[in-house]
Amino acid sequence: MEDFLDANVTPYSLRFSGRDLWRLKSTAMNGAFELALGLNEELDALKLFVDHINFRLPENGDIQASEEMVRLVSGGQFGAEMVSYFAFYVAPTELETEQLRIEAAENTIIVEPGSYYLKIGRLCGPPPKKLHHCIARRLSVKRKTENAPLITGRKVTFGEEVTKTSLWSDIRGLFSVALDNGASVDETDIHSISVEHSGQSKFMGNTDDAGEFVVFDDALLLASNPHYRMTWPIANGFFRDGANYSSVLQDLEDIWCVALEKQLGINRSDFSSYRVILVIGDVFRRHEVRYLADVLLQRLGFSHLFVHQSAVCATYGLGVTTACVVDIGELKTSVCCVDNGISPPDTRVVLSVGRNNVLRTFHGVSLPNGITKGNEDYVDFDYTLASDVNALRTWLTDAERSAHSLIFQLSQLEKQDAQLMEPTTDQRFELTLGNAELHFTVPLRVGAVIYANLLPFRQISLTADPIRLDRPSIYHECQMSPLDASQPDDPFDDLYINMTTRERRKRGGGQGAISADTVATDATGDVRMDRSEPDVAEVQPTPMNDTQISPQARSTAFESLPNAIWWSIYQCAFTVSAQSTSETGTLAYPMAPVSQASAEELRRRLLRCVVLIGGGSCGPSGRWLAKWLTSELSSLLASTFSINAPMEDGNRPPVEVVTFDDQSDLAWCGARLLLTADSSSDMWITQSEWKKYGSRTLREKAPFLW
Questions:
Q1: What is the residue-averaged pLDDT of the chain?
Q2: For 94-103, how does the pLDDT look when each residue is reduced to its tens digit (9 = 90+)?
Q3: What's the sign of the alpha-carbon dihedral 339, 341, 345, 351?
Q4: Rounded (5°) CA angle 497-503-508
Q5: Which alpha helices (DSSP H) does 176-276 contain, by range?
Q6: Confidence at residue 92, expressed as pLDDT on a 0 to 100 scale
Q7: 622 phi, psi to nearest 5 deg
Q8: Less CB within 10 Å around the terminal CB: N or C of the chain?
Q9: β-strand 685-686 against 304-309: which pairing, if any?
Q10: What is the pLDDT of residue 248?
Q11: Cα separation of 613 and 136, whole Å?
């Protein structure tokens, strides 16, 4: 027996890497135990074990040898001896297990596809590559229309919002700066001279060496080139609205493939040796996640896939268990509450406002009428030129730093100097417009810079574009219920269970229907008792007043970011408390205060940990936004309790908004910790599983509520 085993098993260890050897050993060990007990047929068992751990035997001779072992064991020959042999010689040692973990970490890629940036990198490598998530394809015929602008949003002029909100008074009270409506730049204050003339080819990009498509920064340079069409596959956190899904998936495949080959140095032929962690948005569309998984597993050919939400990954990176995560990106802002690593679907909302809207508002505030010099033509920023957009971004960053420095200086003044007029922030700015470079100085008020940063989040409908073309007045989207988003490749999903449960109740009727289907779970996770149960005498709980945690209706519109955060926190508190009470069945009145207390405690913890992440919350703009959000949420909290149930000041939960100077990669870095989780090995999706089961694997293996 030992000669047979040495001759047929040992050669595997000479051919394969540590990972494949570990898979082989696991296969052999599990197979020996199962077959020795006679639980499987010989050929079916071999296929089951090989398919279960996604390991394929390389040669026909090896398959024949393995089948011979199956026959020996399934026939009852040397069963116990083979089990002992595998347990002693073939089981992976601690050193091999550690080597396997290191190898798995080195061969793991983390991909976070955003609307404006693609963050991609190795799990064990340096910080991720932050690349523009765009592609420019060569056209067979020169196009006549212009490409879409690189900056979206509606133009806002200074003071347009004054009569609608109290933003000016908020800025005056929070930052102690004087404000007026004279921030519009006068033409006499702009000093500009033309210093250079150059050809348009400088701004259209060099197309001599460009192939059928270019990506990242090179694609931005071709935004105004009539021979190319530049597109963004993802906008506002979802696939580009109105685009063909086949073209979007092809764009994503080409962009990601170039990033892996050129930026990370991984050949496409080696993709099958790597695993990938996909970080998706907090509010997702299930069919889009299914398409992304198909691109990674089928088109690019990665061996394993792990999918998780960005907000939960951000809490891993922060080391907190409960938080309200506000992710401010370039084109969208998402709000999501997380409690113990779980994000209830009813608490997620995405708004079509971001850093791009701040940039557009700043442009309208600083140069509402563009630049004119004497009898020369009117010139202004061209949003289809990457050079103009980059120059505008640089100008905004410099203005924010100068304004933050001046605010700090004002805060150090003594009381007798408090009447000092607000200083201006004269900015020396170099702008490239078309075929000329202009140098000019623009005086900006500190309050105007803060105004441009807060207005998009204070009055969303004033600056944002609709999130979908077919809903022109809607600027947000909430997480859709699984009952409303059934996937065609997952026939036994929640919708199927819901429908079949009702049919069984109709056919059964009477007392026979009261069985395992008595309690049914709906899409929101609430448990509802069957109506055919006999009525029992119970004491009904007193109705909750507004001071208690109660479900808030899904809003048809969010006027501001604080309203969205407030709605999400209260939704999370009610949902979690409802789930905890439903576990005990029908709630009687003595238990109502217990449920209410748990909901109140969760609300307190969420208000204490509102976290701002994303590129739009870094630097001075993030600090201003955090200070303003703290004030707004505190006002909402105070008004709620003062009107309905006055409380002592000491009993009011504090509001704390946390921000960072540079934590735009927090979710990506938090995804690194997924590999260290004890249960992560059960959540990887293999190629064979995806090909066979499709979206069912996401529903069963995803670590979030699918």
A1: 72
A2: 666 666 677 7
A3: positive
A4: 125
A5: 201-204, 217-221, 245-258
A6: 55
A7: -65, -40
A8: N
A9: antiparallel
A10: 94
A11: 29
The structure tokens listed for 412 are: 């150090």
Could you tell me the two tokens for 419?
A: 């009447």
Compute CA distances 251 → 137, 216, 244, whole Å.
9, 12, 11
> Residue holding tokens 């909290």?
637
Strands 238-239 and 234-235: antiparallel
Closest listed residue to residue 443, CA positions, set 184, 690, 252, 110: 184
Closest C-alpha to 531, from 518, 512, 515:
518
Q: pLDDT by residue (tens digit) across 416-464?
A: 454 555 566 666 665 655 545 666 777 778 888 888 899 999 988 888 8
pLDDT digits (tens, 9 = 90+) for 259-303: 999 999 999 999 999 999 999 999 999 999 999 999 999 999 999
The conformation of residue 491, written as its DSSP 8-state character, comes to T
Give the whole-angstrom CA distance, residue 372 versus residue 353: 31
Instruction: Mention every residue, 6+ apart, whose C-beta is less than 8 A from residue 618.
Output: 660, 661, 662, 663, 664
Give the pLDDT confidence of 235-247 residue by residue, as tens digits.
988 998 888 899 9
Tell the residue number behind the tokens 């993709």, with chain if given.
Answer: 271
d(CA 599, CA 580) in angstroms, rounded, equals: 10
Q: Which of 237, 329, 281 is nearest to 614 (CA)?
A: 329
- Model pLDDT, residue 3: 42
CA 245 to chain centre: 20
Taking a C-beta distance cutoff of 8 angstroms, is the pair 254, 215 a contact?
Answer: yes
Rounded to whole angstroms, the Cα distance separating 296 from 482 reads: 23
CA geometry: angle 215, 314, 236, nearest 5 deg: 45
End-to-end CA distance of the chain: 49
What is the pLDDT at residue 47?
Answer: 47
H or E segment at 351? Answer: strand 349-351
Tokens, residue 525: 């996770």
CA distance linking residue 556 with residue 474, whole number of Å: 8
Positive or negative torsion for Cα 550, 555, 559, 560 = positive
- Report the candidate in 409, 390, 452, 459 with the shortest Cα–Cα distance to residue 621: 452
Q: Where are the domains of the chain?
A: 2-96, 477-664
Rg, Å, the chain Cα set: 30
Task: Give me 269's structure tokens.
Answer: 């032929």
CA 590 to the chain's CA centroid: 41
DSSP state, 126?
A: S
SS3 readout for 512-547: HHCCCCCEEECCCCCEEECCCCCCCCCCCCCCCCCC
Q: Are 479 and 345 in contact, with CB atoms under 8 Å apart?
A: yes
Tell me the three state secondary structure of residue 405: helix
Residue 346 makes CB contacts below 8 A (sequence gap 6+) with 478, 479, 524, 571, 572, 575
CA distance 341 to 703: 9
User: 386-411 vs 355-366: helix axis angle to the nearest 10?
Assistant: 80
